[in-house]
Write a structure and sequence with these properties.
- Helix content is about 25%, strand content about 35%.
- It is α+β, with helices and mostly antiparallel strands.
- The strands form four sheets. The chain has a six-stranded mixed beta sheet with strand order 6-7-8-3-9-10, with helices on both faces. A five-stranded antiparallel beta sheet has the order 13-12-11-14-20, with no helix packed on it.
- It starts with a strand and ends with a strand.
Length: about 325
Amino acid sequence: MKLRVEGIRKAFGQESVLKDIHFDAQEGKFLSILGDSGSGKSTILKIITGLVEPDDGRVFLDGEDITHKDPAQRGIAYVFQSPLLFPHLTVYENIAFGLEVKKVSKSELQKRVSELLSLLKIEELASRYPAQISGGQQQRVSIARALATKPSLILMDEPFSGLDPTLRMEMGTLIKSLQELLHLTIIFVTHDVNESLRLSDQIALIADGQILQTGDAKSVYYRPQNQIVASFMGGGNWIKGIIEQGVFSCDFGEFQAKNFLDGEASLFLRPHQIALNKNLKSDIVKIEEIRRLGKEIQVDVLREGVKLTIETFDDHRYDIGDEVGLEFPKIALHYVN
């Protein structure tokens, strides 16, 4: 299964919500659409599932143009923020509902529902009604119901946003394990950067109705295409310099920059990629500020008016005013011209 979104545009009245959206969701992979509230994430899902018509562009599923196909014929499951279970049906009956609509045989239905009750670890809830179970349990039932008919694609619209942090982490781990176990194709909407990095094979970062960058989670985090992407993913250090013949020169030394164009450029490094070393006698900087965040220490250092932020779990005691050396990574340096 492969989903392709090509040139999708959507406006509501005078407000342009989506502007020329392009991305692919690979078969058996977990794709997160990451962005702030109001960025257009949910509208993308609604267009894919057929709940909203695009003004322009097309949606392909397994090579078939489904842009104007009836939602019921797309074979796509949708998990909403709220579980939206049928209150008058038991957990078992909620999961079985889609199978009954498809007129699946009784024996196959029982087998499928039993499998899902086991996979989602909710066997003991089978005879209860939604009002008798917790929010986290309701969301498990909602996921089981979505999986029941073996959809070609599962869309999830911030399904864990109403859960407390511990339960949210637990549910994320569960859905990721199910995705890998069952080789599911999932498109997952979230505004949580850490959640997207933890769960995703691919990330599509969206802001103001435009996709800013797509790629695997590691590349979006460590190799942002611009400062907007870098900042959204957690911020980092931009060091200005110049590239000449495969060498980047800046206030902090010279670094390899093979396969990058000559000219002015910026080196990007996440705070944890730079190490402090009291024993180094080169690349000396002065500590300007220290923030202790539990086990983690965040240190601001300054040289020649350029400030860098460094994160460390080092046991050494650092104090404001200390002069320390810096160790930069030897590989995977990322430059933006």
